[in-house]
């Protein structure tokens, strides 16, 4: 498969007189192949936006190799800029300009026919409000405008940083449909988001970054499968007896008030057979599959602790075992 | 070319630019209206009287010079009576005087173009300098702040080209507006003088001098515009340029001048940017420095001419602009 984005060993440290030295990205790798809808996940401050900014030439990388559509970034970016649409972090526009004028100026600067402006405004649902000043727009409308600016040049590669930010549920669904239709038309999409359920719905591949490093990459289903502990939830009339029987069968059981969680059961039929043969009838047997949220939280070490405000992803002095765990299913394409 | 077109449109669409143009037109209108209302065309009698008075004063000056020369030749009987005359008679020579009394000096309530054109032009240049500086600083400052530059760089990832296009567009637009405004300004006041005032005696020397001030003024407007743009680029904000200029004026032009005087540093005006601005605009500027004088028995005056003044202003602007491009080329746009 053709590689559309390649990042190897990206490093970036910010230096500030007030805040000192802060490592934002620390040897990060990313691989996006043509036609993928690739999710880019990470907690706040994990280095997502810095990575995208470095890729787009807005931030100077300290080290590493980056290529976009076969061109070395940032040196050869001008060669491929016309084929890359991007929005990075919260989109900001000049408030006194209308959406139409904003896009028209970009189209002019980029040599895109200005007739595209109305098309993309229609595409993102801003057609009727395209002649209003941007300062009157809601965050969601600004987000739509940002996406419109990225679509203006009919990109082959679309890089979207938090595109669902500020969108209402209907807007999120529209954004999802838009990305799907773009992907169906052959556009490669790299999308970063905090809405993990959305990523799971939209993306076929995912890369997870934590503390500036890649901690997981690959097809979404394969990344999830890597965290599948073959667990199932069991409810039965006599929970104590059921637990006893399952333990006796050599299974790992965690007891809860009204159910049991059995681990290490690739086939749930094992549970129903074990209990049924001893006259304990199963009322509920549900396989527990990991979702992206649980994987994300496990990999990034981010589950909330009661009463402890969670900190953004920085360089804490303590050792984080999750940071050492790297699930990499995407080394040169596991699905190739 | 597309980038330039987009930048021209972006600049023209900016509210601040539109506001400044309205202010320019307003200031122009108020000045013209006030002049129009307070001036009248001199009658033949007024004109004749003014011509007579001017001729009388000129004659008086010539007589005084003649007396001085006669004193030197020993032709005056009562030397004490003429003790007010200077030792050097060339100081009284009408041919060597900077200014000759003219008819317009004796016309009351009459707008005289030849007398007023120069101060009017200085006022316009000052306004255009303010316009250029503020528009230059806010154009890039607001764009850096609002994410406009980042958006543009996502489309045209050539930093120096983008910044160069912005600066070029800005300078072109300011020059175009300055040319139009100053031409309209001078023509309007020329017409006012023709209709309800007195044009005054114009000759090639007058137009050449006015043209020189105009040309130097336009150069200064462009230098100030580029300076405002460069400082705002380095500071990322419009306010950086305003702050830098305010700090310079207060700390150096005021505070520094006092310190230099206390320390009795020779020729402190040579260390002030304002001296070079004034010298460039006026063509030459004479300053006084008494630090080397004992008992007041010396001529401490010295002049700064337009040549060195231009060199200083060009070097400063070029340095600021080069620094702005160098900083912008390497800056992380976060």
List keywords for this structure.
heterodimer; A: 336 residues; alpha/beta; Rossmann fold; Alpha-Beta Plaits; 2 domains; seven-stranded mixed beta sheet; four-stranded antiparallel beta sheet; 12 helices; disordered C terminus; B: 334 residues; mainly alpha; two-stranded antiparallel ribbon; flat
Describe the structure.
The complex is a heterodimer of chains A (336) and B (334). Chain A is built from twelve helices and 15 strands. Chain A is α/β, with parallel strands linked by helices. Chain A folds into two domains: 3-225, P-loop containing nucleotide triphosphate hydrolases (Rossmann fold); 231-288, Alpha-Beta Plaits, CATH 3.30.70. Chain A has a seven-stranded mixed β-sheet, with helices on both faces. A four-stranded antiparallel β-sheet of chain A has the order 2-1-4-5. In chain A, strands 12-13-11-14 form a four-stranded antiparallel β-sheet, with helices on one face. In chain A, helix 3 (99-110) packs across helix 4. Chain A is elongated, with a radius of gyration of 24 Å. Chain B is an all-alpha fold. Chain B has two domains: 2-42 and 112-330, no CATH class; 46-106. Chain B is 71% helix and 3% strand. Chain B has ten helices and two strands. Chain B has helices spanning 2-13, 15-38, 44-73, 113-146, 148-155, 159-196, 204-235, 238-262, 273-282, 306-330; strands spanning 284-288, 301-305. A two-stranded antiparallel ribbon of chain B has the order 1-2. In chain B, 29% of the residues are buried. The model of chain B has no long low-confidence stretch (mean pLDDT 89). The A-B interface holds A 14, 50, 53, 56-60, 74, 77-78, 81, 84, 86, 88, 91-97, 101, 104-106, 108-111, 149, 153 and B 2-3, 5-7, 9-10, 13-15, 142-143, 146-148, 150-158, 330, 332-334.
